[in-house]
Amino acid sequence: MNKQTRDDMNPEEKLKRLHELEQKLIGGEEINNEERKKKRKKKLNEMREKQEQRNHFSQAIDTNDEDVMMRVFSNAQEELHFTSKKLEQIRLENKRLKIDNADLQHEFEIDRQSYFNTIRTQEKQILLYRTMLEKMSNIVERNCNYSNLDKVIEQSRYDEERNVYFVPDPFLEEVQFPQVVNLSTPTNGRAFQSIPSSPSNNYYYNNQLSNMDPDEIERRYSRNIDVSTVPIGKIRNRRQEQLLNENALLQSIKMSPGQMNNLENDYMNRRLNPFESPSRLNRRYGYSPDA
Questions:
Q1: pTM (2 d.p.)
Q2: Which of 60, 161, 201, 260 could be cross-linked to 197 through a Cys-Cys bond (beta carbons 3.0 to 4.6 Å apart)?
Q3: How far apart are CA 167 and CA 145, in angstroms?
Q4: Rounded-to-integer distance, Cα 260 and Cα 250, Å
Q5: Any idea where the domains of the chain sit in the sequence?
Q6: Per-residue pLDDT reduced to its tens digit, 128-154
């Protein structure tokens, strides 16, 4: 804006332009803030009152007016008393806040120690449960999925909404052993060892034999065959498998005392001489180990 343009503007336009510039300056955005205006006005009034008191005090000193001086000193004393009272209230409030802060610090320290004790107790319990589970997993059957705790933990899932763990259900895996063909053939100069049957098969076999009478067992398992035509190695391997279930068979079958004594003697002889045929088969078929 050049000088000629400023001269052509009337006073109202100049005043309007001046207000626009004031609003654009720093702090001009708060020019319409009523609260700020009130604070500024109050501060100006206080400054004006203090200035008037100083003027009255100066005039009183110049004219030696004692009444005016007493009024000034009275106002100063009242102001000092009001300030001292307010300072005392602030001091009491500060003391109360310090006491509250100390109480909060003490409660926080108590809660902190309580949380630490709870964490230590829970860690000890977790260690105890872990040790117990490891001990128990050693006696669990190997075909049970809970024999491997690390795998169970890996398969477990946590539900945050219901705050529960979902763990896999325990189950037993069926173990199928490979079928052995030609049991009598030695391997690398060593005799072949038969694979023992699973506990479930032994239980089924013993349970089936316990429900049969001795005559039925003799008729079913002692067939009329020519023992001389059977290889001695095959007979020995069969006898080894039969000895595994002989004790359970003796306990499950009810016999007369004479028959029980004969079976016990026969059982002891087979334990001492595992490769010899039973005496009852020798008597029935006329088989001799020297043949």
A1: 0.32
A2: 201
A3: 11
A4: 8
A5: 37-123, 199-285
A6: 988 888 888 888 888 888 888 888 889
Q: What is the sign, positive or negative, of the torsion defined by CA atoms of 51, 55, 57, 58? A: positive
> Could you give the CA distance from residue 291 to residue 244 in angstroms, rounded to a whole number?
26
Report whether 242 contacts 263 (CB < 8 A). no
> In whole angstroms, what is the distance from residue 170 CA to residue 152 CA?
9
Tokens of 89: 């209230």
The confidence band for 126, taking pLDDT boundaries of 50, 70 and 90, is: very high
Q: What's 108-133 look like in SS3?
A: HHHHHHHHHHHHHHHHHHHHHHHHHH
Integer Cα distance of 89 and 96 in angstroms: 11
Task: Give the Cα separation of 232 and 238 in Å (integer).
Answer: 10
> Do 243 and 270 touch, CB atoms closer than 8 A?
yes
Task: Output 20 or 87, whichever has higher pLDDT.
Answer: 87
Q: How would you classify residue 256: left for phi > 0, otherwise alpha for psi between -120 and 50, otherwise beta?
A: beta
d(CA 147, CA 137): 5
Side chain identity at residue 64, one-letter code: N
| Spatial separation of the C-alpha atoms in residues 126 and 136, rounded to whole Å | 15
More confident of the two residues 190 and 65: 65
Who contacts 291 (Cβ-Cβ below 8 Å, separation ≥6)?
A: 228
Which residue in 69, 71, 42 sits closest to 57, CA to CA?
Answer: 69
Q: Decide if 205 contacts 245 (C-beta within 8 A).
A: yes
Digit-coded pLDDT (tens) for 40-57: 888 888 888 888 877 776
Task: Give the three-state DSSP class for 17.
Answer: helix
